[in-house]
């Protein structure tokens, strides 16, 4: 066989071999993704099954689907756990924290990204480090200070804690998103006589909408699921968020697995539904903000 024939033969075999390798890699990747998805979904599916069973059926069949759906478990858990009150409290905490974070964090991020005051880089490094510090490291002095200020067992006091806890990450993400926005439109607005606040609200804010949406979802998820701070700073059951009330609920009905499973579904359903509805915008905004420096 001539050299040209060998080259052509090899040229024909290599693409086929590469295609087979890519196909095997694709099958392996899909198998891993399916395994991880099952690992994440199966506990939720078992929880949903147990929420509509009787306790006797859970003892006999703890992992399988129910033979008879007992929807009354949800109504009973909703009433006994007083979730109507505590879910409303959680909505207040989430909305108030998100609003404060977006307004204050947005203004701070704009100043750091566009005005660039002296020491802004070191401040951003501080925000990055502060966002990784565990809250339990400063919970004792914070508790003592809030007691001296009379902010213990108040809803606005807990909101202040949530805002302060999420501020470093909020400012870091928003500043990272704003810093690479094109400045030509801002310069044109200033030439037309717009002040800095008008530039921020009419130019930067619309362009940064994905970043603000991402921050809002991150903060909202964190506040809704937060338990430790609420348990520390709130002692009045009428002010409990839903996570704290669910903890008290499971303590009262620790042996009623059907009722506690229904309560768990009630707790996680709103935030899961919100995330699934906005997951595309969340992932796109987080990816765009994360690659900008």
Q: How many H/I helical runs?
A: 13
End-to-end Cα distance: 57 Å
User: In CATH, what is the class of the largest domain?
Assistant: Mainly Alpha
Helix percent band:
over 70%
Instruction: Kindly provide the radius of gyration, computed on alpha-carbon positions and rounded to a whole number of angstroms.
Output: 26 Å
Question: What structural category arises from helix and sheet content?
Answer: mainly alpha
- From the coordinates shown, what is the CATH architecture of the largest domain? Orthogonal Bundle
Shape: globular
Instruction: Output the CATH homologous superfamily of the largest domain.
Output: MetI-like
Low-confidence stretches are 4-9, 289-293
Number of strands: 0
Name the beta content range: under 5%
**SSE order, as H and E?**
HHHHHHHHHHHHH
Q: Under CATH, the topology of the largest domain is which?
A: MetI-like fold
Number of domains: 2
Mean pLDDT: 85
What would you say this structure looks like, in words?
The chain has 293 residues and is mainly alpha-helical. The protein has two domains: 17-72; 81-255, MetI-like (MetI-like fold, Orthogonal Bundle), CATH 1.10.3720.10. The chain has helices at residues 3-50, 55-60, 72-80, 83-115, 120-130, 139-149, 155-178, 184-191, 196-207, 209-225, 228-233, 242-252, 257-290. Helix 10 packs antiparallel against helix 13 (257-290) and helix 12 runs antiparallel to helix 13 (257-290). The longest helix is centred in the N-terminal third of the chain and has 48 residues, at 3-50.
């Amino acid at each position: 066989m001539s050299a040209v024939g060998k080259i052509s033969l090899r040229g024909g075999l290599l693409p086929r071999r590469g295609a087979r390798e890519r196909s095997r890699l694709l099958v392996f990747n899909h198998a891993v993704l399916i395994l991880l998805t099952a690992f994440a979904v199966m506990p939720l599916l078992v929880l949903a099954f147990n929420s509509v069973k009787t306790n006797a059926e859970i003892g006999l069949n703890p992992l399988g689907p129910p033979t008879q759906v007992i929807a009354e478990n949800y109504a009973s858990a909703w009433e006994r756990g007083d979730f109507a009150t505590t879910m409303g409290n959680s909505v207040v905490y989430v909305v108030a924290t998100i609003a404060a974070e977006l307004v204050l964090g947005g203004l701070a991020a704009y100043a750091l990204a566009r005005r660039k005051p002296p020491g802004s880089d070191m401040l951003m490094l501080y925000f990055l480090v502060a966002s990784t510090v565990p809250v339990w490291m400063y919970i004792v002095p914070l508790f003592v200070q809030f007691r001296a200020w009379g902010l213990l067992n108040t809803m606005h006091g807990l909101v202040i804690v949530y805002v302060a806890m999420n501020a470093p990450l909020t400012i870091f993400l928003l500043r990272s998103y704003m810093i690479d926005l094109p400045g030509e439109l801002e310069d044109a607005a200033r030439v037309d006589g717009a002040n800095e606040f008008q530039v921020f609200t009419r130019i930067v804010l619309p362009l940064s909408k994905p970043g603000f949406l991402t921050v809002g979802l991150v903060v909202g998820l964190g506040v809704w699921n937060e338990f430790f701070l609420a348990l520390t700073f709130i002692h009045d059951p009428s002010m409990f968020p839903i996570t704290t009330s669910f903890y008290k609920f499971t303590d009262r009905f620790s042996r009623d697995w059907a009722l506690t499973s229904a309560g768990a579904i009630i707790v996680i359903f709103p935030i899961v539904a919100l995330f699934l509805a906005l997951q595309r915008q969340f992932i796109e905004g987080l990816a765009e903000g994360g690659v900008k420096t």
